[in-house]
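Researcher: Here's a chain I'd like modeled. Treat it as a single chain, no partners, no ligands.
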Amino acid sequence: MMNWEALEQTCKSCQKCALADTRHNVVFGVGPRDAEVMCIGEGPGENEDLQGEPFVGRAGKLLDDMLELIDLDRTKNVYIANIVKCRPPQNRDPLNTEQDACIGYLRNQVALIRPKIIVCLGRVAAVRLIREDFKITREHGQWLTKAGVQMTALYHPAAILRDPSKRPDTFQDLKSLQAKIQEVCNHTY
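Model: Modeled as a single isolated chain. C-alpha coordinates:
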Protein backbone atom coordinates (compact mmCIF):
# COMPACT_ATOMS: atom_id res chain seq x y z
CA MET A 1 0.00 0.00 0.00
CA MET A 2 1.31 3.46 -0.92
CA ASN A 3 1.01 6.51 1.31
CA TRP A 4 -1.09 9.48 0.15
CA GLU A 5 1.75 11.38 -1.51
CA ALA A 6 3.10 8.36 -3.42
CA LEU A 7 -0.40 7.31 -4.45
CA GLU A 8 -1.31 10.76 -5.77
CA GLN A 9 1.97 11.06 -7.70
CA THR A 10 1.53 7.58 -9.17
CA CYS A 11 -2.02 8.45 -10.27
CA LYS A 12 -0.94 11.73 -11.83
CA SER A 13 1.70 10.01 -13.96
CA CYS A 14 -0.38 6.89 -14.78
CA GLN A 15 -0.36 5.60 -18.35
CA LYS A 16 -2.06 2.23 -17.71
CA CYS A 17 -4.93 2.83 -20.16
CA ALA A 18 -5.88 4.99 -23.14
CA LEU A 19 -7.76 7.51 -20.94
CA ALA A 20 -4.35 8.97 -20.05
CA ASP A 21 -3.94 10.12 -23.67
CA THR A 22 -6.99 12.43 -23.61
CA ARG A 23 -7.11 13.71 -20.03
CA HIS A 24 -6.45 17.27 -18.94
CA ASN A 25 -6.18 16.36 -15.26
CA VAL A 26 -6.16 13.24 -13.13
CA VAL A 27 -9.14 13.57 -10.78
CA PHE A 28 -7.71 12.01 -7.63
CA GLY A 29 -10.35 12.72 -4.97
CA VAL A 30 -11.33 15.37 -2.46
CA GLY A 31 -12.20 15.56 1.21
CA PRO A 32 -10.73 14.89 4.63
CA ARG A 33 -8.49 11.84 4.66
CA ASP A 34 -9.98 10.62 7.93
CA ALA A 35 -13.58 10.70 6.65
CA GLU A 36 -15.84 7.94 7.92
CA VAL A 37 -18.06 8.31 4.83
CA MET A 38 -16.78 7.88 1.29
CA CYS A 39 -18.79 8.58 -1.87
CA ILE A 40 -17.58 6.87 -5.02
CA GLY A 41 -18.73 7.66 -8.56
CA GLU A 42 -17.79 6.09 -11.87
CA GLY A 43 -15.43 8.67 -13.37
CA PRO A 44 -14.84 12.34 -14.08
CA GLY A 45 -16.83 14.31 -16.64
CA GLU A 46 -15.72 17.33 -18.64
CA ASN A 47 -15.81 19.88 -15.79
CA GLU A 48 -14.03 17.47 -13.45
CA ASP A 49 -11.34 16.77 -16.06
CA LEU A 50 -10.75 20.49 -16.55
CA GLN A 51 -10.72 21.37 -12.82
CA GLY A 52 -9.11 18.21 -11.44
CA GLU A 53 -11.79 17.70 -8.77
CA PRO A 54 -14.64 15.15 -8.67
CA PHE A 55 -18.27 16.21 -9.00
CA VAL A 56 -17.92 19.92 -9.83
CA GLY A 57 -20.39 20.33 -12.72
CA ARG A 58 -24.20 20.40 -12.52
CA ALA A 59 -24.27 16.89 -11.07
CA GLY A 60 -21.61 17.92 -8.56
CA LYS A 61 -23.68 20.90 -7.44
CA LEU A 62 -26.64 18.56 -6.95
CA LEU A 63 -24.44 16.11 -5.02
CA ASP A 64 -23.27 18.93 -2.73
CA ASP A 65 -26.93 19.93 -2.15
CA MET A 66 -27.87 16.30 -1.43
CA LEU A 67 -25.03 15.90 1.05
CA GLU A 68 -25.86 19.22 2.70
CA LEU A 69 -29.38 17.90 3.45
CA ILE A 70 -27.78 15.41 5.84
CA ASP A 71 -24.96 17.63 7.14
CA LEU A 72 -22.20 16.26 4.95
CA ASP A 73 -19.66 18.51 3.22
CA ARG A 74 -16.72 17.61 0.97
CA THR A 75 -14.44 19.96 2.89
CA LYS A 76 -15.39 18.68 6.36
CA ASN A 77 -16.66 15.12 6.69
CA VAL A 78 -16.98 13.15 3.44
CA TYR A 79 -14.37 11.96 0.93
CA ILE A 80 -15.39 11.86 -2.75
CA ALA A 81 -13.60 9.79 -5.39
CA ASN A 82 -14.26 7.84 -8.58
CA ILE A 83 -13.48 4.37 -9.86
CA VAL A 84 -11.49 5.79 -12.78
CA LYS A 85 -9.40 8.92 -12.31
CA CYS A 86 -9.46 10.12 -15.93
CA ARG A 87 -12.41 11.21 -18.06
CA PRO A 88 -13.83 8.68 -20.52
CA PRO A 89 -14.47 10.34 -23.94
CA GLN A 90 -17.94 11.91 -24.28
CA ASN A 91 -18.58 10.93 -20.63
CA ARG A 92 -19.31 7.33 -21.65
CA ASP A 93 -19.24 4.64 -18.96
CA PRO A 94 -15.68 3.56 -18.20
CA LEU A 95 -14.80 0.28 -19.92
CA ASN A 96 -13.98 -2.75 -17.76
CA THR A 97 -10.35 -2.57 -18.93
CA GLU A 98 -10.18 1.09 -17.80
CA GLN A 99 -11.76 0.23 -14.46
CA ASP A 100 -9.35 -2.68 -14.04
CA ALA A 101 -6.37 -0.41 -14.74
CA CYS A 102 -7.52 2.11 -12.12
CA ILE A 103 -9.27 0.12 -9.38
CA GLY A 104 -6.05 -0.44 -7.43
CA TYR A 105 -5.76 3.31 -6.84
CA LEU A 106 -9.28 3.43 -5.39
CA ARG A 107 -8.60 0.37 -3.24
CA ASN A 108 -5.47 2.11 -1.93
CA GLN A 109 -7.52 5.24 -1.11
CA VAL A 110 -10.11 3.11 0.72
CA ALA A 111 -7.34 1.33 2.65
CA LEU A 112 -5.82 4.68 3.70
CA ILE A 113 -9.14 6.28 4.67
CA ARG A 114 -10.70 3.16 6.24
CA PRO A 115 -14.27 4.48 5.89
CA LYS A 116 -17.09 3.01 7.92
CA ILE A 117 -19.56 3.71 5.07
CA ILE A 118 -19.14 3.62 1.29
CA VAL A 119 -21.85 5.19 -0.87
CA CYS A 120 -21.76 4.15 -4.52
CA LEU A 121 -23.05 6.97 -6.72
CA GLY A 122 -24.84 5.28 -9.60
CA ARG A 123 -25.08 1.93 -11.33
CA VAL A 124 -21.49 1.68 -12.62
CA ALA A 125 -19.93 2.16 -9.17
CA ALA A 126 -22.46 -0.20 -7.54
CA VAL A 127 -21.87 -2.95 -10.13
CA ARG A 128 -18.10 -2.66 -9.63
CA LEU A 129 -18.02 -2.33 -5.85
CA ILE A 130 -21.12 -4.08 -4.52
CA ARG A 131 -22.12 -6.86 -6.93
CA GLU A 132 -21.88 -7.55 -10.68
CA ASP A 133 -25.65 -7.96 -11.09
CA PHE A 134 -26.61 -4.97 -8.93
CA LYS A 135 -29.81 -3.27 -10.14
CA ILE A 136 -29.82 0.39 -9.11
CA THR A 137 -33.55 0.87 -9.79
CA ARG A 138 -34.45 -1.98 -7.41
CA GLU A 139 -31.62 -1.91 -4.87
CA HIS A 140 -30.76 1.79 -4.32
CA GLY A 141 -30.78 2.65 -0.62
CA GLN A 142 -30.42 -0.96 0.54
CA TRP A 143 -27.57 -1.69 2.94
CA LEU A 144 -25.05 -4.50 3.01
CA THR A 145 -21.79 -5.12 4.82
CA LYS A 146 -18.70 -5.96 2.79
CA ALA A 147 -15.32 -6.47 4.47
CA GLY A 148 -16.69 -4.78 7.59
CA VAL A 149 -17.80 -1.65 5.69
CA GLN A 150 -21.45 -0.58 5.42
CA MET A 151 -22.29 -0.08 1.73
CA THR A 152 -25.21 1.35 -0.19
CA ALA A 153 -25.90 2.90 -3.58
CA LEU A 154 -27.76 6.07 -4.54
CA TYR A 155 -28.88 7.20 -7.95
CA HIS A 156 -26.09 9.13 -9.64
CA PRO A 157 -26.78 12.89 -9.42
CA ALA A 158 -26.70 13.10 -13.24
CA ALA A 159 -29.48 10.49 -13.39
CA ILE A 160 -31.56 12.60 -10.99
CA LEU A 161 -31.00 15.67 -13.18
CA ARG A 162 -32.23 13.67 -16.20
CA ASP A 163 -35.17 12.18 -14.29
CA PRO A 164 -36.42 14.36 -11.40
CA SER A 165 -38.97 11.67 -10.45
CA LYS A 166 -36.02 9.92 -8.73
CA ARG A 167 -35.79 12.75 -6.16
CA PRO A 168 -38.25 11.35 -3.56
CA ASP A 169 -36.49 7.95 -3.50
CA THR A 170 -33.13 9.67 -3.24
CA PHE A 171 -34.35 11.80 -0.33
CA GLN A 172 -35.40 8.62 1.51
CA ASP A 173 -32.02 7.04 0.71
CA LEU A 174 -30.24 10.11 2.10
CA LYS A 175 -32.28 9.92 5.33
CA SER A 176 -31.30 6.24 5.58
CA LEU A 177 -27.65 7.23 5.08
CA GLN A 178 -27.97 9.85 7.82
CA ALA A 179 -29.40 7.24 10.21
CA LYS A 180 -26.57 4.80 9.35
CA ILE A 181 -23.97 7.53 9.99
CA GLN A 182 -25.53 8.19 13.40
CA GLU A 183 -25.44 4.46 14.10
CA VAL A 184 -21.87 3.54 13.06
CA CYS A 185 -19.75 6.70 12.83
CA ASN A 186 -17.88 8.40 15.70
CA HIS A 187 -16.82 11.84 14.41
CA THR A 188 -18.83 12.57 11.24
CA TYR A 189 -21.41 14.68 13.10
